[in-house]
Amino acid sequence: MSNIDYTTLVGYLAEIPDPRSPRGQRYEWRYLLLLIAAAMLTGASTPTTISNWVAMHQVTLIAALQPVRKTVPSMATLRRALCAAPIEALEAALGRYQAQLAGETGDAGLLVTKQGEMLRGAALDGKVVRGASAHGEAVHLVSLVCHESGIVLDQMKASHKRHKCRVAAIILARRNLDGVVLTMDALHTSVKQARQIRQGAGDYLFVVKRNRRTLYNDIADAFTVLPPQGS
């Protein structure tokens, strides 16, 4: 294939290790990943629709990507590539690519405090992925998303709903939180989560419900009993 441009998706996909045996390889690993990514960006979401899109655009794809073999792979080959792709490495690479895109949004969504500190908002949330259940088991994803652009900076699968807090801690540990204000639902409202965010130089806005009675009452007292600051 032609030279890799590490400022584009091509470069980040090239970081993903090839899990295949060296024997019998007909196509370069990043060529397969690029074909799949290009097809999915058009809305293709199954091996059949991905393969159909690749076959329909094979002349353009071969001319643009310059693979060693001047052909496109079969649906069986694309399916094997989908099954073999290392999920964690793939998500990490795509997260780095998305972070680069977020850096190109300029001042959109940027807040400047009275002290001159520049802040950006990011939401930490977990959702059940529709249409991605395997053998009746729901797929839970925890994602870190930019407020202003909707770009997903990072995501990771959680085995179940209660596992989301542990996954959230892993995501936050591998991100630079300096200048970031995190929002999240009440599931993540905890001393442990707050301490991790502050230790990472970030800030947070937590949702506090009545089931956390002591904290809820303390906050209510702060706004109803104590005098306003500076009075």
Structure description:
- This protein has 231 residues and is of the alpha/beta class.
- 40% of the residues lie in helices and 15% in strands.
- Strands 1, 2, 3, 4, 5 and 6 form a six-stranded mixed sheet that branches.
- Helix 2 (29-41) packs across helix 3 (47-56).
- The radius of gyration is 22 Å and the shape is elongated.
Low-confidence stretches: none
What portion of residues is helical? 40-55%
End-to-end Cα distance, whole Å, is 68 Å
Largest sheet: 6 strands, mixed
Which word captures the global form? elongated
Q: Which structural class should the secondary elements be placed in? A: alpha/beta
Report the mean per-residue pLDDT as an integer. Answer: 83
Radius of gyration: 22 Å
The multimeric state of the shown protein is single chain
- Supply the number of helical segments: 9
The topology string of helices and strands comes to: HHHHHHEEEEHEHEH
Q: Assess the beta-strand content as a share of residues.
A: 15-25%
Q: Can you count the beta strands?
A: 6
